[in-house]
Specification:
Length: 114
Amino acid sequence: QVQLMESGGGLVQPGGSLRLSCAASGRIFGIYTMAWYRQVPEKERELVARITTTGNTNYADSVKGRFTISRDDAKNTVYLQMNNLKPEDTAVYCCKMYIGMDYWGKGTLVTVSP
């Protein structure tokens, strides 16, 4: 019914930047809050950033000032601009949309390493 697909992950050195994208497709007939999460194996999934239907945003304390979430509703796409990346940012990043139920992307791997 609804599919989310992330892209933009990769390997980057500390202090570098990446821009993640999450494109939603399928049975979408409105604008919904979307969010980015990240997960490290054997660790709890962490909410990284959220953007509401009106463009309000909030962030995990660990990424404030470094990450920016945005959306393009015409494209049903949400972005995560990640600057000044740190090794502890290494994780699989997944996007989520709630449209009657949670829809998740498969994730894109971000590795921050010298």
